[in-house]
Write a structure and sequence with these properties.
It contains two helices and four strands. The protein has 89 residues and is of the alpha+beta class. The chain has two domains: 38 residues, no CATH class; 49 residues. Bound molecules: heme C. Heme C binds next to helix 1.
Length: 89
């Protein structure tokens, strides 16, 4: 099986598919901010300081910025090539 997407709602069974047998887990999941992750930024409620704020963790640096109206993050690791991801938020 070749996976081509993991961000669309249709890519998942959906939380409610688990509820019948795992209702306690489902309630905990729905109360957690984790259930908002793995979304397309066009439909997600994207929160973050996309104003050039830079975060550092160990050797990694991530800079959140807005370019041409699009939220963008640029990450780099000391002594390695830069990686860049863009979202359409
Ligand atoms: C028809 C009932 C049923 C449904 C629906 C169901 N499960 Fe389960 N699930 C079980 C049973 C029974 C077990 C085994 C529980 C045990 O061993 O204690 C289990 C075990 C699990 C485990 C392993 C738990 C552990 O501690 O090892 C995970 C993870 C899990 N289910 C996830 C899901 C997810 C995610 C969904 C929805 C997409 C789902 N299940 C839907 C019945 C169901």
């Amino acid at each position: 099986m070749r996976v081509s997407s993991n961000v669309l709602f249709a890519d998942y069974a959906g939380t409610r598919a688990c509820e019948k047998c795992h209702s306690d887990k489902v309630q905990t999941w729905l109360a957690s901010p984790m259930h908002n992750m793995t979304r397309e930024p066009t439909v997600a409620d994207v929160k973050g300081p996309f104003d050039g704020t830079t975060f550092h963790f160990k050797d990694d640096t991530a800079r959140l910025e807005t370019k041409n109206g699009h939220a963008s993050s640029r990450s780099s690791r000391r002594n390695s090539a830069r990686a860049r991801t863009k979202s359409r938020a």
